[in-house]
């Protein structure tokens, strides 16, 4: 099966024909399968950190499979021979870098053996977030999607350099001898930009350095399939959303065992937030409200969307802010820049990480909290782009409607936003909120309330992390009905009292 790239996705429902009549043991086996697949990809990421390229193929990839492929933005290495040659070239290049640095730093490295210094100067950090895994009905194959937001330090002919990366890992897996193995893996980036600079503006070129000339001749072999998989971001790139989202292995599952049902429900809730990250990447806010939020009449009226300064209440009001006003701003941006399409030169990444999920004892509702180190980039009239970091915690109340979990109340508590390339420690302590881009975008909420004061970065615990609970009540809500003044911490200077 091929790996598809699309921008829209409707969440699968059981009535679409997927077999849900598994025994309790079969459900447990499927839970184990997705856990093992997550571990497999975790091992892959750690192999990159450890510069274990020569070990990766035999450790993690499908053996004796003609259809294996490893893809990047510029093409695919198809077949075991091409993939092994790629990994060997990366290994050899790391060895060359180590020998150059050994010569440059004889006191620190001169006495060390080749195997001791292999990988010095190179650090490939490719952590994986938001896993959505689909396991085939027969349990012998699977596919998965991850966000990958990382950093890459390397050495070039102009010396050491480091980059931020934002992208995706798209994978297909096969079970061989009861062990999951990678069959296809596409590692594609939207952003690969030198640290200390904005990826929305031209980055100055570096001059070659003496002693690093050998790296000019150190070449990684070209892919044997040169058909590009994804264009890197630029302010002129047409809008490119997330790759196709797999159908989560546990979507809509209902089992007779109550303890197993709780395990599956918690996984389904996590998947809702991972789906939400991909809907944001697609800028499909209308689809998010349609597919992920509550649908019952009463709950639609009490649904809420909050940021630091208050809440919009009711799905119609949320849609007016979150979808309609946003779409209008994009149309205005298109006209102002003369772009050929809406969202040209824009890219969005809000991966939900560091999750906490508390499922109510009665199994009818749940509460969760996540953190996102996010970025949004929008084209500007001058042809560059405004690229910004957004650091935010996300607090959510979920409710079960039939067999499906839905978002009911959501709060995004922003800790920090700043332009990419800025030293955010140099931002003023007292930010003028009226000039804050998040505050301006949020508009005038239905209920005004300072929910989270980011002045001192985490000096409050609002919204608070979820704790175990029996059943939902208004006082536990992340909506306005549950608002309480936060527990104030670490205010020795007696400042920051903007709560009322």
Secondary structure elements and their pairing?
Blueprint: H1 24-49, H2 53-60, E1 69-72, E2 75-78, H3 80-104, H4 106-109, H5 114-117, E3 123-125, E4 128-135, E5 141-156, E6 159-176, E7 179-194, H6 258-281, H7 285-292, H8 297-302, E8 304-307, E9 310-313, H9 315-337, E10 347-349, E11 353-359, E12 365-379, E13 385-401, E14 404-419, H10 437-442, E15 447-448
Parallel strand pairs: 1-7, 8-14
Antiparallel strand pairs: 1-2, 3-5, 4-5, 5-6, 6-7, 8-9, 9-15, 10-12, 11-12, 12-13, 13-14
Helix pairs in contact: 1-2, 2-3, 6-7
Briefly summarize what is shown:
The protein is an alpha+beta fold and 500 residues long. It has ten helices and 15 strands. The strands form two sheets. Strands 8, 9, 10, 11, 12, 13, 14 and 15 form an eight-stranded mixed β-sheet that branches.
Please explain how this structure is put together.
- The protein has 500 residues and is α+β, with helices and mostly antiparallel strands.
- It folds into two domains: 14-216, Nuclear Transport Factor 2, Chain: A, CATH 3.10.450; 283-482, Nuclear Transport Factor 2, Chain: A (Roll), CATH 3.10.450.50.
- It contains ten helices and 15 strands.
- It has helices at 24-49, 53-60, 80-104, 106-109, 114-117, 258-281, 285-292, 297-302, 315-337, 437-442; strands at 69-72, 75-78, 123-125, 128-135, 141-156, 159-176, 179-194, 304-307, 310-313, 347-349, 353-359, 365-379, 385-401, 404-419, 447-448.
- The strands form two sheets. Strands 8, 9, 10, 11, 12, 13, 14 and 15 form an eight-stranded mixed sheet that branches. Strands 1, 2, 3, 4, 5, 6 and 7 form a seven-stranded mixed sheet that branches.
- The longest helix is centred in the N-terminal third of the chain and has 26 residues, at 24-49.
- The N and C termini lie far apart (57 Å).
């Amino acid at each position: 099966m091929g790996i598809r790239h699309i921008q829209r996705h409707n969440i699968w429902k059981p009535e679409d024909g997927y077999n849900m009549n598994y025994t309790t043991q079969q459900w447990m086996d499927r839970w184990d399968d997705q856990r093992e697949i997550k571990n497999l990809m975790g091992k892959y990421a750690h192999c990159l950190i450890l510069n274990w390229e020569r070990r990766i193929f035999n450790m993690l990839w499908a053996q004796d499979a003609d259809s294996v492929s490893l893809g990047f933005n510029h093409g695919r290495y198809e077949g075991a021979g091409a993939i092994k040659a790629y990994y060997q070239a990366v290994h050899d290049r790391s060895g060359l870098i180590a020998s150059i640095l050994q010569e440059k730093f004889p006191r620190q490295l001169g006495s060390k053996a080749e195997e001791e210094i292999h990988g010095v100067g190179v650090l490939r950090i490719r952590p994986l977030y938001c896993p959505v895994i689909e396991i085939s009905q027969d349990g012998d194959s699977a596919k998965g999607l991850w966000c990958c937001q990382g950093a890459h330090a390397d050495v070039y002919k102009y010396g050491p350099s480091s980059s931020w990366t934002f992208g995706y890992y798209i994978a297909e897996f096969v079970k061989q001898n009861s062990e999951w193995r990678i069959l296809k893996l596409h590692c594609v980036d939207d952003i690969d930009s030198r640290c200390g600079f904005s990826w929305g503006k031209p980055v100055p070129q570096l001059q070659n350095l003496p002693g690093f000339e050998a790296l000019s001749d150190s070449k990684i072999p070209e892919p044997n399939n040169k058909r590009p998989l994804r264009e890197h971001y630029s302010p002129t790139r047409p809008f490119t959303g997330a790759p196709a989202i797999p159908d989560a292995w546990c979507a809509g599952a209902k089992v007779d065992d109550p303890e197993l049902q709780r395990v599956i429900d918690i996984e389904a809730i996590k998947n809702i937030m991972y789906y939400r990250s991909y809907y944001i990447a697609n800028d499909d806010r209308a689809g998010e409200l349609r597919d992920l939020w509550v649908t019952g009449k009463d709950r639609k009226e009490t649904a809420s969307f909050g940021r630091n300064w208050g809440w919009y209440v009711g799905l119609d009001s949320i849609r007016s802010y979150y979808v309609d006003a946003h779409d209008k701003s994009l149309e205005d941006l298109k006209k102002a820049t003369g772009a050929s399409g809406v969202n040209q030169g824009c890219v969005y990444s809000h991966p939900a990480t560091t999750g906490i999920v508390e499922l109510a004892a009665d199994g009818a509702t749940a509460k969760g909290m996540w953190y996102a180190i996010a970025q949004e980039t929008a084209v500007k009239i001058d042809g560059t782009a405004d690229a910004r970091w957004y650091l935010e915690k996300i607090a959510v109340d979920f409710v079960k409607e039939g067999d499906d979990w839905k978002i009911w109340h959501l709060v995004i508590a922003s800790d920090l936003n700043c332009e990419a390339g800025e030293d955010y420690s140099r931002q003023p302590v007292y930010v003028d909120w009226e000039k804050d881009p998040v505050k301006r975008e949020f508009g005038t909420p239905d209920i005004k309330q300072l929910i989270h004061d980011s002045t001192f970065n985490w000096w409050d615990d609002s919204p608070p992390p979820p704790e175990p609970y029996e059943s939902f009540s208004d006082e536990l809500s992340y909506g306005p009905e549950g608002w309480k003044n936060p527990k104030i911490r670490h205010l020795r200077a007696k400042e920051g009292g903007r709560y009322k």
